[in-house]
Specification:
Neuraminidase, globular, 49% strand, 7% helix, 28 strands, 2 domains, 341 residues, Methylamine Dehydrogenase, Chain H, 1 helix
């Protein structure tokens, strides 16, 4: 019996070592897909089951094969896209069309638009909540959240917020979290009652933008200006750690299989953090490309997809636009595919 216990212990340690080694393998840029076209971009959304990648790109959503990078279609007739949320039965998707102040519903099989639902001003971050079958669009200019019943395709609530919202996440059990960029806060919502249940200040975090969630470990990962990530307890709201990341982040992702947290940084790096350790050490800062500040994760393959382009000169500041972005070189829009070899 004693020898059997020892063998089991050794096997467990070997397995643990294998999992740890898997998590520690370095990431690299595996390939690049030139998409071309003109205009800016925002969020990317992965659908591993269908092997699709949704990329918001100006007035359209590019739909790619996530294995080959081939463009399989597009969702057009939009004005200024930000994010894409997907339902949990594979039928419909939802685009936050900030330029139209609407959430556009599309059929995931045909990519045809089936409805346009008025939202607040400039809907940006968007998430599907599976327990209540609702879509939540967070409106950047009107500082509120639009809640949509997906069965009725109608707005069932509008929730006022204390400041400009950024990215939301859902925990799968009826709770939603969202960053409030202008207040350095995370807000918690009850999806059933459509109410705010907590507002938490985030320590050492300026202008939180991207947000990711570890649903099993009850951790939130908010990326902030000033080269910091905030790791927040999703039950208490306490900030647990502030690992260093790159400058200019706009998206965060968490890989539950590999227990890694990611920050995509506009300065041209992807920060990879070991979320299995209480100190949240940085494992790697992968060089990507300047401007690659938004991303998504394929949780099956572990690949991270980032969007960027080549940039021209930055226009001179004006009173109306004191911090202008550099011009995008037409035809240079690209998806970077990163992963472990």
């Amino acid at each position: 019996m004693k020898s059997k216990c020892i063998r089991n212990l050794v096997s467990a340690l070997v397995l643990f070592g294998s999992v740890a080694a898997l998590a520690q393998k370095p990431y690299s840029v595996l390939t690049q897909w030139k998409i071309g076209g003109e205009g800016g971009w925002d969020y990317l959304t992965s659908d591993p089951g269908a092997h699709r990648l949704y990329v918001t790109h100006g007035p359209r959503v590019e739909v790619l094969d996530s294995d080959s990078g081939k463009v399989v279609g597009s969702i057009t007739g939009l004005k200024g896209t930000h994010g894409v949320a997907l339902d949990d039965d594979g039928k419909y998707g939802y685009v936050s069309d900030g330029g139209a102040n609407a959430v556009v519903v599309f059929d995931r099989a045909s990519l045809a638009t089936v409805a346009s639902i008025p939202a607040g001003t400039n809907p940006d971050g968007i998430v599907f909540e599976p327990k209540t079958k609702t879509v939540w669009a967070f409106n950047g200019r009107s500082s509120n959240a639009t809640v949509i019943d997906t069965a009725q395709r109608k707005v069932v609530a509008t929730i006022a917020l204390s400041g400009k919202p950024e990215f939301p996440v859902a925990d799968g059990t009826g709770t939603i979290f969202a960053n409030i960029e202008t207040r350095n806060e995370i807000v918690r919502f009850d999806a059933a009652t459509k109410t705010i249940t907590a507002t938490w200040p985030v320590a050492n975090c300026d202008s939180p933008s991207g947000l990711a969630i570890d649903t099993a470990g009850r951790r939130l990962f908010a990326v902030c200006d000033g080269g910091k990530m905030a790791v927040v307890d999703a039950n208490s709201g306490k900030t647990l750690a502030n690992p260093a990341i790159g400058e200019g982040p706009d998206a965060a992702r968490y890989d539950a299989k590999r227990k890694l947290a990611f920050s995509s940084n506009g300065s041209g790096t992807l920060t990879i953090i070991d979320a299995s350790k209480p100190t949240y050490p940085v494992l790697q800062n992968l060089d990507t490309q300047k401007g690659a500040r938004t991303m998504t994760l394929d949780w099956v393959t572990g690949r991270i997809y980032l969007a960027t382009a080549a940039f021209g000169e930055r226009p001179a500041p004006t009173a109306a636009n004191p911090h202008p972005r550099p011009a995008i070189v037409p035809g240079s829009f690209t998806i970077l595919v990163t992963g472990q070899k």
